[in-house]
Task: inverse folding
């Protein structure tokens, strides 16, 4: 059994997608990150960065004690190696997959996250930050588009953890879903086609619609108004205090 410490963010959705693709049993432990559920000392023993998702595998490969894994890229690689799918065991295909996986967690993910933060949470008057991150997301989407013009999937001919990492993200998902069903189809047609093909996969449908995995309303939408406590738990003093006390 795998315990998945979960919130329905794009990083969390990466992990539910691969678990559904694997067809394995897993136990969802939900967290309300606005409420600060992730800031406890107990969770800090699972992830010292106090961020979601994280997993505990009680039946690891080779046996032995339970294994804890945090950071979505590491979790995807761990699960792919556990099930023997979505990541080649060696060679060029593996190298390309890990390159694009790392690109997602180091470039597309953070830039999309910053764009989302300033659009959704920042006070008025953040025009420079919004323009800076939106422009960079556009550049990164163009990088992805050029790749997908040449290849049906991000790492080549096969669906992989690189696709799983990229699909739920604030960048690829945001341009498709926030502004209407066909947004992005003209500017990034290959990415649009890729997005829709993955969206139709049964495991993805389940991961995005199962009642215990769906995002609450307050995780959705563009302009969110947070209470003082919610801001503290997400970005402020409570968030920083958890790390210092951990």
Result:
């Amino acid at each position: 059994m795998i315990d998945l410490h979960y919130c329905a963010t794009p990083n969390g959705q990466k992990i539910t997608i691969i678990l559904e693709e694997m067809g394995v049993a897993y136990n969802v432990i939900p967290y309300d990150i606005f409420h600060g559920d992730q800031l406890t000392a107990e969770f800090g023993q699972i992830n010292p960065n106090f961020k979601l998702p994280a997993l505990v595998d009680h039946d690891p490969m080779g046996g032995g004690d339970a294994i804890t894994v945090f950071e979505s890229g590491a979790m995807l690689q761990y699960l792919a190696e556990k099930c023997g799918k979505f990541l080649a065991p060696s060679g060029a295909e593996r190298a390309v997959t890990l390159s694009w996986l790392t690109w997602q967690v180091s470039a597309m993910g953070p830039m999309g996250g910053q764009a989302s933060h300033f659009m959704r949470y920042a006070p008025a008057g953040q025009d420079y930050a919004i323009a800076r991150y939106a422009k960079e997301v556009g550049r990164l989407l163009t990088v992805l588009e050029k790749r997908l013009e040449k290849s049906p999937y991000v790492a080549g001919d096969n669906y992989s953890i690189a696709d799983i990492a990229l699909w739920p993200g604030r960048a690829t998902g945001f341009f498709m879903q926030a502004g209407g069903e066909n947004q992005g189809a003209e500017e990034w047609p290959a990415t649009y086609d890729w997005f829709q093909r993955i969206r139709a996969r049964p495991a993805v449908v389940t991961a995005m619609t199962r009642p215990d995995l769906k995002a609450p309303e307050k995780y959705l939408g563009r302009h969110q108004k947070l209470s003082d406590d919610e801001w503290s738990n997400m970005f402020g003093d409570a968030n920083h205090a958890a790390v210092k006390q951990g």
